[in-house]
Amino acid sequence: ITFAAAAFDGVHLFDASTFEPTRLLTGRAGFVGSVAFSPNGSLLASGNQDGAVHLWKVATGAELTPFSCNDGWVLSVAFSPDNKTLASGCGSTIRLWELTTGRTLRKMTGHTAGIYSVTFSLDGTMFASSSFDGTTRLWSTATGEILRTMNFPSSRIRASMFSPAGRLLATSGEYAITLWNADTGGSVMRLSGHDEVTSSLA
Fold it and tell me: What's the pLDDT tens digit per position in 22-76?
């Protein structure tokens, strides 16, 4: 089992049982804002300051052709559950990429600030994008249509995550976590207690 960590000198891979480093993936340019493994574990994607999504084969460390979006820093990346599509937050724009070809399937706009999280529902039918503009938007994976918007104007949204059943969406803002009903967009619960910014969910 392998886990990854982003650093200024590249993406470090570690053995999860020993915590020993196994590989350093380089070749990218600038700050790495996000990393994600493909569902089958064969690929790793990173979002980079250079405005591109970089892809590597985990087994060999070989870098594949990057996906260039040229819409700003890539601060978030996520693979679809079926391993066919990659989502990226490029500045304030979302792109869906065909994984095998690197072709842009869809480009979605609407956010007014950087997108710090993209995440797919477990069945892959929709995905969420969370932004520093204080909103999380739900989109149809098949059509790119916006389904609903959750507003949290006093907070910069840094992370989002669907529940395993896909009916709840958790988002983290400045000092609290909010649970949302993914079907209605309504707020279900607010979890507070952090003294600092919450930047990650799992």
Answer: 998 886 566 788 899 999 999 999 998 888 999 999 999 999 999 998 888 899 9
What b/e sequence results for 126-152 when a residue is b if at least 16 CB atoms lie within 10 Å of its CB, and e otherwise? bbbbbbbbbbbbbbebeeeeebbebeb
Which residues partner with 117 through β-bridges? 130
